[in-house]
Amino acid sequence: MSFIGRTTILCSNGVTPLSDEDIRRVAPSAFATRAHESRSARYAYIPTADVIRGMRDAGFLPMAAGQARTRDGGRRGHTTHMLRFRHADARPMAERRVGQTFPEIVLLNSHDGTSAYRVMSGVFRLVCLNGMIVADREGAEVRVPHKGDVVRQVVEGSYAVLDDARRALEAAEAWQGVTLSRDEQCAFGEAARVLRFGDAEGRTRTPITVEQLLAPRRVDDAGDDLWRTFNRVQENAIRGGLTAWGRDAQNRPRRVTSREVTGIDGDVWLNRALWTLTERMAELKGAD
Predict the structure, then answer these.
(1) Which InterPro entries match (predicted)?
(2) Alpha-carbon dihedral sign for residues 272, 114, 151, 14
(3) Is 96 exposed, middle or buried (CB count within 10 Å of its CB: 0-12, 13-18, 19+)?
(4) CA distance 100 to 125
(5) What is the model's pTM?
(6) Which stretches of the chain are assigned E, i.e. beta strand?
(7) What is the pLDDT of residues 61-113, one digit of tens each?
(8) Is 232 within 8 Å of 214 (Cβ atoms)?
(9) How far is CA 147 from CA 83, 150, 153, 160, 269, in A?
(10) What is the mean pLDDT of residues 4-25?
């Protein structure tokens, strides 16, 4: 098991699924016994614990869990939570050039009215225990409102979305065969830098450089192909920990370290944006 970030996302070792006790430690809102008091009588409360049980019965095993932080103590037990599931039949793509990479299902929910059940397609790399979320497009997400047979709808949606996750792995294999020049890698990194650090006008004031986003964290991630370029940038942007010297408001030198993306909404948004960026680069390079 490993803990990632101040949001406290618990990841398995990439092989052994999480137990209910593991999930409860980091995402107690998944086991809330009733809806938040702000919900009306028309709100159909379906515990996420029931969905987890239904997913397990269908062969989807929980591999990671986390819960959004909130300053409102009254919502702490009902706030947005995220779980990543992998089907028991899933096998690592060891025979493929993308390495041990699995298709996964990403499930988001809350019991305070801020989120319906969202079922999204994802990809998981075992080598770095790093989860990605596929771009927002038809087939990549199913939304299930809190009414009716939610468990059945989530399970059915998971099977539909799983097909998209498998197609995403096929795309990743194609990206491995797309070679980027240094200028193209820098252009990719600059776009990612704006996504991660830019303000509403797209201006970036961070001293963190494109070269730092492109730097590999392990030997196997060094290379000029699109898949590894994406992996380096995605991991550096999400995980943070990049250090550079900048200037404070008084123009004095100060050491800056990029923060990890710890919010669930921010993680989903940035992951999807980076996946879309990679798809567009593949199109420009003429990849299928």
Answers:
(1) DUF932 (IPR026325)
(2) positive
(3) middle
(4) 6
(5) 0.83
(6) 2-4, 9-11, 60-67, 81-87, 101-109, 117-125, 130-133, 141-144, 243-247, 253-257
(7) 999 998 887 655 554 555 788 999 999 887 654 444 456 788 899 999 876 66
(8) yes
(9) 20, 6, 10, 20, 26
(10) 72
**Where do runs of H (alpha helix) occur along 177-263?**
182-197, 210-214, 226-239
Angular region, 69: left φ>0, alpha ψ -120 to 50, beta rest: beta
Q: pLDDT, tens digit, for every residue of 173-212? A: 899 999 999 999 999 999 999 999 999 888 999 999 999 9
CB neighbourhood size of 136 (10 A): 14
Chain-wide mean pLDDT for the chain? 84
H helical segments located in 63-181 = 150-176
**Which tokens hold the place of 210?**
């494109």
Tokens of 159: 């099977």
The token pair at 93 is 């793509």
Distance (Å) of CA 115 to CA 79, 109, 225: 9, 6, 37
Start-to-end C-alpha separation, the chain = 37
Residue whose pair of structure tokens reads 């990049």 in the numeric block = 242
Q: How far is CA 177 from CA 96, 100, 223, 286, in A?
A: 12, 17, 11, 11
Supply 157's token pair.
């949606």
With beta carbons less than 8 A apart as the criterion, state whether 168 and 134 touch.
yes
Is pLDDT larger for residue 82 or for residue 130?
Answer: 82
CA distance 140 to 103: 12
Cα 166 → chain centroid: 16
231: exposed, middle or buried (Cβ count in 10 Å: 0-12, 13-18, 19+): buried
